[in-house]
Write a structure and sequence with these properties.
21% of the residues lie in helices and 41% in strands. By secondary structure, it is α+β, with helices and mostly antiparallel strands. The chain has one domain: Hotdog Thioesterase (Thiol Ester Dehydrase, Chain A, Roll), CATH 3.10.129.10. Strands 1, 2, 3, 4, 5 and 6 form a 6-stranded antiparallel β-sheet that branches. A hairpin with a 3-residue loop joins strand 3 and strand 4.
Length: 138
Amino acid sequence: MEGFKHKTAIQIRFKDLDLMGHVNNANHFSYFEVARAKYFDDVVGEDVDWSSEGIILAKSTCDYKMPVLFKDNVSVLTKCSRIGNKSFELSYAMIKEENGKEIILAEASTIQVCFNYVKRENIQMPEKWKKKIEAFEK
């Protein structure tokens, strides 16, 4: 998929399925969370004391394209689509690989706000995070 450099494999668990045999739509957000954490670890790559400062999720949206089934070979592609002063947006494409092709199952986005959990207020995005994300996304 064009523009995506980061890929996270997702393991579908039997408990993720609903009565129709599809992955329940609420699980998509858990898969995006796994991809978001992996992206942050791989791209920013630093230990963060999440109890004091870090990020907080401000918005998440998802467009469901196809049902996800138990045996699907699923991955989430992630990219940073916007960096602001206090927030950044990640875009996702949930795909399955089938017969050598990538098929889009869902597309999503999340907005993360940099946050001080002790003071309970928004903070500026650390400059080193911006630089690492921008360098990765070039």
